[in-house]
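G.,

No rush on this.
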Amino acid sequence: MVKHASFQAIILASLLVAALVSPPPAIAEPFQWMRIGDIDGFGFTPTRGLVRPVQGVGPGPADTNDNGRLEPDEFLPDLNADGGVWFRGDDNFDNRSDGERANTGHACQGCQTIGEATGGSRWTDLALSPTATASDWPDINGPAMPNSAAFVFDFTVARGDITPGGTIFFNLVFGDYDIDPAVVRVRFANAAPRILRIPNQQIRGLDGLIQVRTANLRFDEVFSPTDNGDWHGRAIVIFDAPADPFTAFDYVELSLAAEVAALAR
């Protein structure tokens, strides 16, 4: 009996050690956001030395809070320092990463899968200008106007990783919109489309202004249940500015949080 008890003690000790050294079971990450492009200030790194257009605001840095990233309520840079940001000067830029050029520059925090239809990053970190020289232009017609950027969200969130019925925020960060008309059209798989109007920067008299368009979307506009009870997110976003010869996008996302202006952080 003593030997048998000793053997049981050894087994229990071994099981305890195994439990202590074994990794904890994987825990699903709750959904936070699905993003096309990335939050990198239109790809301008570093920002020191970049100046803002003097029109409407006067001389100064483009990165007004000097935190190393161009954000809403700051400015696209006046690259040739001629006083403004426009297609006739040398303010064109192409700061896209390899992933953004390949249309795979997207990510999700809390997604189960990202569908193959997801795309649009090739429109980000790029000056949409008729005088651009990029060889791999996102529009099949080349840089000639109009340049109406399109972004497609197609993703799945596992049941339990998102709370049904909550608000989904649409966040779009863009720069130098100053010629009307322009609207953001958002289309869904199982809901009526939305038309989101955006303020022209000239209302504030600020050339090169970086803006954010945030809108509240209903959960059932973005998500529909899958056959196994998960949630399929689907939306198509088109920025329609047929008369504007110069604009740019940093990123567009569906998120549980609203984007805010840099000066309000």
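When you get to it, here's the other one too:
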Amino acid sequence: MATKYLHIPRLRRIYVWELPVRMYHWLNVLVLLTLIATGFYISNPLALMSQTEATNVFTMGWVRFIHFAAAYIFFFNFLFRIYWGFVGNKYADWKQFIPTSKRFFNEMWTVIKIDVLLMKGPKGKREHLSIGHNALAGLSYFIVFLMFLVQCLTGFGLYAAMSDWWFADLFAWVPAVFGGDIVTRQIHHWAMWFFILFSVIHVYLVFYHDYVEGRGEISSMGGGWKFIEEEFFEKDKPHTPNPEKKE
């Protein structure tokens, strides 16, 4: 009779997400939620019935103030992430987001087969290829960064007409480029729906990979660590776009 043995994989603890990346991520979550909630109110305000004198009610003013303050945090947080893409470890490197090699496209296709088409990978498993961002996730985040830029340009472009600060005035040219305030406001609103859709897909995929891989995908954005099988390092080098760069 054949004897069956229980295979217990040996795991290596890898520090993937540095503290600045994790702070950027969670600050972005809070700011985006604030911007979306206040943006909805600004675009379609509630009819608040009150016997209070109108001069003593400043509901829309406070909502707009919160929206503008969150927009500044969002903008400078975005600039910081761009900076960290040049000074952070290889998992935060900008090469993780821009296709720079044939291997990048090959990995994208593999991820599409596993994540989207639900096909099984090597050895009949549905498992990931990268420790940090896989190629498809990296490219999707690059598109998100471009949408961040569009949202900042259109938002500050609209804000410039009512602001006295020199920073906001730097974006006064934006509405004219996009075809006027109305079109600029529509683009700003559509971009918001892009982020809502992306957030839903992002959360789903994080839980999906945490379940399929069991490598601490969710907790890694809290503590920064992932647990990767030693076999992954022994048989397959991590398929990162820039594997030669040291952490």
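The two ends are 48 Å apart (CA to CA). The longest helix spans residues 181-213.

Enjoy the weekend,
O.
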